[in-house]
Amino acid sequence: MSDNMNTKNENLLSIKNLDVNFYTYRGIVKAVRNVSFDIRKGETLALVGESGCGKSVTAHSINQLIPMPPGKIDNGEILFEGIDLLKLSEKEIRAYRGDRISMIFQEPMTSLNPVFRIGKQIADVFQTHHKINKDEAWERAVRLLELVKIPAPEQRARSYPHQLSGGMRQRAMIAMALASPEPGLMIADEPTTALDVTIQAQILRLLAELKMEVDMSILLITHDMGVVAETADRVVVMYAGRKVEEAEVHDLFEIPGHPYTLGLLNSLPSNKKYEDSKRLEAITGQVPDLLTIGDWCPFENRCKYTEEICRKEFPKETEISPGHSVWCHRAGKLGKYE
């Protein structure tokens, strides 16, 4: 029991002080600024925030999928099982992509090749990373389609992407991400965005089952706090390229420590505060321009608790409870936000 608990507390991935910038003709877009977090073995970490907050850029930096140029990782470390991925050559990082570190992209129709059968695309992953023949790779592809609960997997393996429904295409993408004998980390970038509510629930349930079955960790990128509540163990909240809060999922929903987190939670239809209300609360104001953003708190122009210091410097980390940290100048002063 203790050995298993120790394994769960081990870090599979550690991102330290990550800075990612995009050098454009208009100037430098500061997409990710000084972001650090860990993903433990066997857990699901949710990276949440509005569109443009830096979630996907952070995740794509792990596999070095940032288009360079114009993008550039200017600072930081990304340690996977103790190895700094940023120091690897392109050939060395390719050995990790799709093998120890896999990815599910937002829209499977644009991620799957329309001119190849589903089974071949999954089989190609096996052949790229493992020395097996075409027949064995095809058999493994069919078994994976069965694992992700696609009906008639042998028949579906011979289908083209356009012949599958959105839910089945997403399951095929998950199967492709699992095409490894030793899955380590699966990055799921908005895996349920284009799906209806019923299929979303099935995909989330499938990911939870597979995580237990194949003993992997998941980095879940989403703006949907309802999805976070159902699937995540821990949560990192990002805003305008910064990390502003990190907590166990239960703590985050019970006592949000940052005004931005509170705004995200108040936008949930199921929030108790709005059970008898007709309208949801919106976060006022606009996301700051990442071309001109300064080193102060990026949320100051939208926050009703803003003080003068918020416009001068970015707040330091405040631990409001064990494992629950907030980057806010008023952390600990307001108690529970109203």
SSE topology sketch:
Layout: H1 2-9, E1 11-24, E2 27-40, E3 44-48, H2 55-62, E4 71-80, E5 83-84, H3 90-94, E6 101-104, H4 108-111, H5 118-129, H6 134-147, H7 153-157, H8 166-177, E7 185-189, H9 197-214, E8 217-222, H10 225-231, E9 234-239, E10 242-248, H11 249-254, H12 259-266, E11 318-321, E12 324-326
Parallel strand pairs: 3-8, 3-9, 6-7, 7-8
Antiparallel strand pairs: 1-2, 1-4, 4-5, 9-10, 10-12, 11-12
Helix pairs in contact: 5-6, 6-8, 8-9
Describe it.
32% of the residues lie in helices and 24% in strands. The protein is globular, with a radius of gyration of 21 Å. Helix 5 (118-129) packs across helix 6, helix 6 crosses helix 8 and helix 8 (166-177) runs parallel beside helix 9 (197-214). With 338 residues, the protein is an alpha/beta fold. The protein has a single domain (2-100, 182-326), classed as Rossmann fold. It has helices spanning 2-9, 55-62, 90-94, 108-111, 118-129, 134-147, 153-157, 166-177, 197-214, 225-231, 249-254, 259-266, and strands spanning 11-24, 27-40, 44-48, 71-80, 83-84, 101-104, 185-189, 217-222, 234-239, 242-248, 318-321, 324-326. The strands form 2 sheets. An 8-stranded mixed sheet has the order 6-7-8-3-9-10-12-11, sandwiched between helices. A 4-stranded antiparallel sheet has the order 2-1-4-5. The model is unreliable at 1-7 and 334-338 (pLDDT under 50).
Outline the low-pLDDT stretches: 1-7, 334-338
Number of domains: 1
Shape: globular
Tally the beta strands: 12
Helical proportion, percent range: 25-40%
| Through-space gap between termini | 40 Å
User: What do we call the CATH topology?
Assistant: Rossmann fold
Give the strand content: 15-25%
Element order: H for helix, E for strand: HEEEHEEHEHHHHHEHEHEEHHEE
Radius of gyration: 21 Å
Strand order, main sheet: write it out.
6-7-8-3-9-10-12-11
Total helices: the number is 12
CATH class: Alpha Beta
